[in-house]
Amino acid sequence: MDFQVGNESRTEDGAVILIPAEGVREHLVVVGNGMAGCRAIEELLARDAGRYRVTIFGAEPHVNYNRIMLSPVLAGEKTFEDIVINSRQWYDENDIELIAGDPVTAIDRAAKTVTSRSGRTVGYDKLLIATGSDPFIIPVPGKDLPGVISFRDMKDVDTMLEAAANGGGAVVIGGGLLGLEAAHGLTLRGMKVTVIHLMPTLMERQLDEAAGWLLKTALEGRGQTILTGADTAEIYGEGQVEGVRLKDGRDIPASLVVMAVGIRPSVALAREAGLDIGRGIRVDDHMVTSDPDVFAVGECVEHDGNVYGLVAPLWDMCRSLADGLTDRHTGYRGSVTSTKLKVAGLDVFSAGDFSGGEGCEDIVLRDASRGVYKRVVVKDDKVIGAVLYGDTADGGWYFDLLRKGEDVGEIRDLLIFGQAFASGGGQADPKAAVAALSDDAEICGCNGVSKGQVVACVEAGNCTLDAVRATCKASASCGSCTGLVETLLAVTLGDDYSGERATRTVCKCTSFGHDDVRREIVAQGMKSIPEVMHKLHWSTPDGCSSCRPALNYYLLCALPGGYRDDQQSRFVNERMHANIQKDGTYSVVPRMWGGLTNPRELRAIADVVEKYNAPMVKVTGGQRLDIFGIRKEDLPAVWADLNAAGMVSGHAYGKSLRTVKTCVGSEWCRFGTQDSTGLGVKIERMTWGSWMPHKFKIAASGCPRNCAEATIKDFGVVCVDSGYELHVGGNGGIHVRATDLLCKVATEQEALDYCAAFIQLYREEARYLERTAPWIGRVGVDYVKSRIVEDDEGREALRARFLFSQSFSQEDPWARRAGGEDAELHQHLAEVRPMEFVV
Amino acid sequence: MTVSNNVGDWLDIGPVSQISPGNARTLPVRGGEEIAIFHTLDNQFYALVNKCPHKQGPLSQGIVHGNVVACPLHNWNISLKSGEALGSDEGCVPTVPLKVDAGRIYLLREAVIPSRTARKAA
Ligand SMILES: Cc1cc2nc3c(=O)[nH]c(=O)nc-3n(C[C@H](O)[C@H](O)[C@H](O)COP(=O)(O)OP(=O)(O)OC[C@H]3O[C@@H](n4cnc5c(N)ncnc54)[C@H](O)[C@@H]3O)c2cc1C
Ligand code: HEM
Ligand code: SF4
Ligand code: FES
């Protein structure tokens, strides 16, 4: 397919400089036979076909084809012939000389000539550079091995098709638009594809965490392996690629590696020619470079500080270029772009800015049953960004609103439901729009409830959201139609309906309460925070500082050993395993089992205090020592020293078991009835390390004099002659609350078993950040008794679940950190010193 | 989509992979203010002086959500884009111009390095 078109006006060796004679058409030479170069000529022909004599140089041995359709060619949905834009006939008919397969290697601006690789030199009056982009190749060992390619032109597709014919494994490096389209095509061609993506979210430039998670899940469902947060260490193989090794040691065998990590404007030729280059070839609004006779369009240019990697801006550029070349200067003013992923069956759309910011408001709609996620970002009543997953029908409409900067204040409340809904009959008021819906319009997709049914239900006397949910089931499942049902209540009841939310929601990101969220996590077997946010229709893309920690805890509690704790959802103290103080330093409290210590521990603490210049050590109310003023960089070293003396984290910072306070009990005290100290140590050994809805304190006193103040603890033991009184739900804080007596047991083992069962009940049923006192205040101590005291089997099951969960949580977090885990949380990124800096 | 860097104007502080999403890391500046560099869950990067406008809490240690960080000391919400306190709280922390290019993070030199001449407004 070599279209070297001859030209009789040139001599045999082709090395002659052709200078146009006076009065002859000006000669326009185009470097780059790609999408922008040819489009520019099409635009020019449409305006003034006879104005210029045109010569096009192309590095590729092809006529002009639609590069974006290489993906369908790879996927087998199209052939090369299908994607040709301009056949050879077009060049002939328009008297365009195409010199294909012969790249231009030099431009001489003084002589106004270009020279190609074959040695051909051609003169120009006007020169248009449209060299596109070069794929970015990451500089890893093995990048030059045969079988390592990029995805840019027809040659790359041919190489991929050859490799695919032999089957086997393929690795695509880069989970952006290009990489995923390559992965999709190779999967359809029968290869076992692994996508390696450096970032944690696929297509992170275009998608947010929520949409990225959906996409990843869908691609995995199609058999691809998606490794996010994965960094390539090397590509290996003897004379041919055999696989890829990651920095974390993982090894993926592959006979083909496609690098799709990004592109750079192809500017080498222009730079050599001395043109002004920034990120690309700098052009003005008329696509003129720093040389008035040289123009540039396409991905190789930088306009107003922007470079583009999509075709839409090229069309705008080519229009203003052609206008300028035909003397009707209009000027290019930059482009807003939108992206669609071309993978059959996966609808992904994104446009504009969705990084949020001052005055930006996110409108989010999630429909888990249909796998839909929509997010529109509005600022000053204008759409400034949109991400759509699963249903992209309204992408064009949002993009249009965005580009035109249209005022959407009037339709804001209905915007997210799409064009049909929002502009339905020109109803600006959401109430009116809902009122105008036909009776058989579906309100609740989950339960198939129509508007007529909801209205009938309200008219039958169900005047609250809860009553409607209970009666006709509308909004009783996923909850995403809650707003619509409330509007219907308002429309139907008029002034009688003042609006309500039946439950207090977790936070402003959701219409669900804590209990609903927990129930659904368990019922649907959810496994990650993005999954919960998606399935429960969170109204924000990634939650807030209220719901993230709560979800993290609920998942942790629901999936002992099976959930990867999300550090980004933990408050600083739990992330740093120390207590932040007002000056930004930390305090460190090592565990002292039941308040007991020994010379070795005390010496180690004394040494730490001196070695790290801790300004203060204090005995806490929880019977242990608190070392103050430790810098975050020193924490791992401090912990290593304390670990060496046998001490572990005291979790004085956590929503977790804090401390078990004891008195000296029967071992020493003349009043003591039982070994309260020994029991306290046993309880602490059993319960330490457990995460809870809130902090949890325990104490054990040896007799009713109660020196350990057990009756203001979350769980307190008061020893008596005949056994152990177990107390629950006490608190010594702002609102002092004495414990309720749970029961009395005879043996130490029973005291331990009841303690474990009570903690598990609290862990499973209290809301995040609810201490035992308000929890028991809410559910009643009788309920707790019914579960712990009166239900032997239930108690035993709770205890077993607690101990199972503990088998995963009793690992000292300090030891892991001291051993180097998460070191970056403690280290500075770098340090800057005046006039020099160290990385 | 990559850029060449005018080395003189921008400080290269290393690859983006050094900060995992939802996290922040710090950059002490001798003779200047410590800077916190944030990586949001939306994969945006921001840099601010690491001092809450309320009572100088280390913002780098807060929970990041959207493009907001919740201060670890008293939970003020600070915009990573503008450095302004959000909601009913008032105050502002200086931001530092940042760009990401070819997988590396760059900070505007003049906003980082305390210079003898007047520091240009960031
Ligand atoms: C697989 C794939 C899928 C894509 N999908 C989409 C999509 O869905 N939507 C979208 O908007 N965009 C998509 N794009 C991007 C789109 O194709 C580009 O934005 C567009 O092709 C850029 O046009 P251009 O003319 O600037 O560069 P190109 O089309 O690359 O043309 C440049 C041409 O110049 C030639 N050339 C370079 N140097 C020389 C030289 N010295 N002498 C002679 N010739 C030279 C090159 O060989 C090339 O043929 C996709 C790209 C690829 C690779
Ligand atoms: C978030 C803010 C708080 C922090 C960082 C904090 C921190 C601490 C620390 C480090 C200890 C020593 C605990 C130990 O030895 O394990 C402690 C003890 C204690 N705190 Fe707090 N605390 C906070 C809020 C509260 C509140 C709100 C109350 C009241 C409800 C409270 C009541 C107590 C009591 C009674 C003790 C003594 C514990 C005991 O004797 O077992 N604290 N606190
Ligand atoms: S609670 Fe009773 S046993 Fe314990 S120290 Fe006080 S008096 Fe002695
Ligand atoms: S110091 Fe940041 S909120 Fe108080």
TrEMBL record, chain A:
Q: Name the residues that bind [4Fe-4S] cluster.
A: C663, C669, C703, C707
Q: Where is the BFD-like [2Fe-2S]-binding domain?
A: 443-490, 506-555
Species for this entry: Sphingobium wenxiniae (strain DSM 21828 / CGMCC 1.7748 / JZ-1)
Protein name (record): Assimilatory nitrite reductase (NAD(P)H) large subunit
Q: Which NCBIfam families match?
A: nitri_red_nirB
Per UniProt, the keywords (alphabetical) are:
2Fe-2S, 4Fe-4S, FAD, Flavoprotein, Heme, Iron, Iron-sulfur, Metal-binding, Nitrate assimilation, Oxidoreductase
Please name the GO terms of the biological process aspect recorded for this protein, alphabetically: nitrate assimilation
The residues forming the signal peptide are none
Pathway involvement?
Answer: Nitrogen metabolism; nitrate reduction (assimilation)
Question: SUPFAM superfamilies recorded for this chain?
Answer: FAD/NAD(P)-binding domain, Nitrite and sulphite reductase 4Fe-4S domain-like, Nitrite/Sulfite reductase N-terminal domain-like
Ranges for domain Nitrite/sulphite reductase 4Fe-4S: 654-790
- Cofactor needs: siroheme; FAD; [4Fe-4S] cluster; [2Fe-2S] cluster
Describe the family membership recorded for this protein in Swiss-Prot or TrEMBL. Answer: Belongs to the nitrite and sulfite reductase 4Fe-4S domain family.
- Gene Ontology terms for molecular function: 2 iron, 2 sulfur cluster binding; 4 iron, 4 sulfur cluster binding; flavin adenine dinucleotide binding; heme binding; metal ion binding; NADP binding; nitrite reductase activity
Q: Where is the NADH-rubredoxin oxidoreductase C-terminal domain?
A: 338-405
Q: Does the keyword Ribonucleoprotein apply?
A: no
Kindly list the organism's lineage.
Bacteria, Pseudomonadati, Pseudomonadota, Alphaproteobacteria, Sphingomonadales
Q: How is the cofactor bound?
A: Binds 1 siroheme per subunit. Binds 1 [4Fe-4S] cluster per subunit.
Q: Which residues form the Nitrite/Sulfite reductase ferredoxin-like domain?
A: 581-645
Query: Where's the FAD/NAD(P)-binding domain?
Result: 27-301
PANTHER family, per database record: NITRITE REDUCTASE (NADH) LARGE SUBUNIT (PTHR43809:SF1)
Q: Which InterPro entries match?
A: BFD-like_2Fe2S-bd_dom, BFD-like_2Fe2S-bd_dom_sf, FAD/NAD-bd_sf, FAD/NAD-binding_dom, FAD/NAD-linked_Rdtase_dimer_sf, NasD-like, NiRdtase/SiRdtase_haem-b_fer, Nit/Sulf_reduc_fer-like_dom_sf
Residues binding siroheme are C707
Automatic annotation (TrEMBL), chain B:
The organism that produces this protein has a lineage beginning with: Bacteria, Pseudomonadati, Pseudomonadota, Alphaproteobacteria, Sphingomonadales
Q: Which UniProt keywords apply?
A: 2Fe-2S, Iron, Iron-sulfur, Metal-binding, Nitrate assimilation, Oxidoreductase
Annotated coiled-coil positions are none
MF term (GO), any:
2 iron, 2 sulfur cluster binding
The record's PANTHER family line, in alphabetical order, gives: 3-PHENYLPROPIONATE_CINNAMIC ACID DIOXYGENASE FERREDOXIN SUBUNIT, FERREDOXIN-RELATED
Name this protein carries in UniProt: Nitrite reductase (NADH) small subunit
Every copy of the Rieske domain together lies at 11-107
Its Gene Ontology biological processes?
Answer: nitrate assimilation
Record bears the keyword Amino-acid biosynthesis? no
PROSITE patterns for the chain = RIESKE
